Amino acid sequence: MSWLLSRLLKALGAALFGFVVGATVRAATGIDSLGLAFGVLTGVGLVLLVDAVRGSRLLNWLRGTQQESAPRDTGLWGELGYRVERAMRDRDRAVARGKLELAQFLSAIEASPNGVLMLDPQEQIVWCNRVAADHFSLDPRRDLRQRITNLVRAPAFVAYLQAGHFAEPLVLGNGRGPGTLSIVVREYGEGMRLVLTLDITERVRSEAMRRDFVANVSHEIRTPLTVLSGFIETMHSLPLTAAERERVIVLMNQQTQRMQTLVADLLTLAQLEGSPRPGPDRWVGLDGLLLRIAADAEALSGGRHRLALKPVTGVELAGIESELLSAIANLVTNAVRYTPEGGEVEVAWRLLDDGSGELTVIDTGPGIAREHIPRLTERFYRVDGSRSRETGGTGLGLSIVKHVMQRHGGELMVQSEVGKGSRFRLAFPAARIRQASDSALGDEAAFNAAALSDH
Ligand code: ADP
Question: Do residues 368 and 393 make contact, with C-beta atoms less than 8 angstroms apart?
Fold first, then answer.
């Protein structure tokens, strides 16, 4: 109320001035009413003039952009200007804060791995993030205010939006390759809808793989089990001669072996998937591994092949002995199993210029047609199912080899041509290879260092 006092004082000043002017006019003219009129007009005019000047200064400022501060004035107009300016600055700050929060909120949604899309009651796109735009093949700017059903025409999606029952998500193939989307819609505000999309291609694929795997395992176990129960039935119901009994027992034994191999391979795979990567500090002599593998392969071949399985490499590999043994043995055993009598199987080692190395298993067997090669490491994939089963294969061998190599930072590569044999190469990175002599030196140095530190 400080302005009121100053205003009263100013009005009093103006009235005084008016009085003086009125008195002067009256004295000069001798007419009372003229003096009074002049006095009142001068006093009121003075107040109006001062108000008009100060009011127009404030009005000019308000009409402008308000970049500079409000006109500094005293009294009523000064306080009015100050209050208006403060209210405007407060409002500007609140708007800026709101804008910042909205931008942060939108960039958080933008960073979401899910697609987010907002629809107005007419199903027009109000906003969408990049992920949703990608999922629906939209342009996040150009397609704003467009009806979503004009742009995404998948009948299942249109029907889902129109039905308005959003309790269950919609699973939709997005029409670009094998992509599969899960779409959830939530209603909010007045007729607004929030559409959330999630790419579930990987999940669908791994669920399908798991289903296939369970179906394959069941099938692989059921086959020998059916055979076994048939034999048991036969032994139970038919009087067999001793020779027949012997034959049946041999066949039953084969089926049991088959199941045992299958379970062992399944366990190996489960172990490979569930255990941490082998460290680079446990060294395994390759020549020792090859000697053990060669002995088994010779027994399996029974002299039917020419075998050259023991190159002297003088190399040690960093990794887990049982896994490396299993990977190399799988390749050598396959080569012997699939190569007909009289064929050759060879194992070769090569150290490359960059320090990496390759162990190659070469055979002169039937070879593999090109279209099968990329699928060989899939679980239970067989080129020739009956040959594989006849020779005790499980269809899991190469998938174990691939896993072992991945875990050791290496790679399995296959070259083969029908009728010309096959080459299975195991590539090891330089960091996992050392010469056995280096290790002896290393051990000696370590021993000397230890001996010195003892003294
Ligand atoms: P399996 O237990 O059936 O041998 P693998 O995973 O070891 O399973 O091999 C997958 C398939 O690759 C085999 O069924 C076979 O058809 C083919 N294969 C593997 N090694 C050879 C080879 N040396 N020569 C020809 N075919 C092979």
Answer: no
pLDDT at 452 over 70: no
Residue 398 beta carbon below 6 angstroms from any ligand 1 atom: yes
Q: pLDDT, tens digit, for every residue of 161-199?
A: 999 999 999 998 854 445 799 999 999 999 999 999 999
User: How would you classify the pairing of strands 170-173 and 357-363?
Assistant: unpaired
d(CA 418, CA 56): 99
The residues, ordered by sequence, that sit 6+ positions from 409 with a Cβ below 8 Å of its Cβ are: 428, 429, 431, 432
Instruction: Kindly report the number of other CB atoms within 10 A of residue 36's CB atom.
Output: 16
Distance CA 159, CA 136 (A): 16
Say if ligand 1 is within 6 A of residue 395 CB: yes
Task: Report pLDDT for 166.
Answer: 93
368 lines ligand 1 (CB under 6 A): yes
Nearest ligand 1 atom, CA 366: 25
> What domains, with CATH codes, occur in the chain?
2-89 (no CATH), 113-199 (3.30.450.20), 208-274 (1.10.287.130), 283-454 (3.30.565.10)
Q: Output the CA 247–ligand 1 centroid distance in Å.
A: 28
What is the predicted pLDDT for the residue at 66? 82
- The response to whether residue 365 sits with its C-beta less than 6 Å from ligand 1 reads yes
Q: How far is the CA of 132 from the centre of ligand 1 (A)?
A: 44
Residue nearest to atom 17 of ligand 1 (CA): 383
Asked whether 376 lines ligand 1 (CB < 6 A), one says yes
Determine the pLDDT at residue 449. 38
Place of tokens 């942060």: 104
List Cβ neighbours of 19 (8 Å cut-off, separation of 6 or more). Answer: 39, 43
pLDDT tens, residue by residue, 50-61: 889 989 988 998
Which residue's alpha carbon is nearest to atom 3 within ligand 1? 395
Does residue 363 line the site of ligand 1, with CB under 6 A? yes
For 450, phi then psi, to 5°, come to -65, -40
Q: Check if 397 has its Cβ closer than 6 Å to any atom of ligand 1.
A: yes
- Outline where 238-367 has alpha helix (H): 242-274, 286-301, 321-338
CA-closest residue to ligand 1 atom 19: 334
Q: Take atom 23 of ligand 1 and give the residue whose Cα is closest.
A: 335
Do the Cβ atoms of 89 and 108 come closer than 8 Å? Answer: no
CB 319 within 8 A of CB 408: yes
What is the bridge-based pairing of β-strands 315-318 and 357-363? unpaired
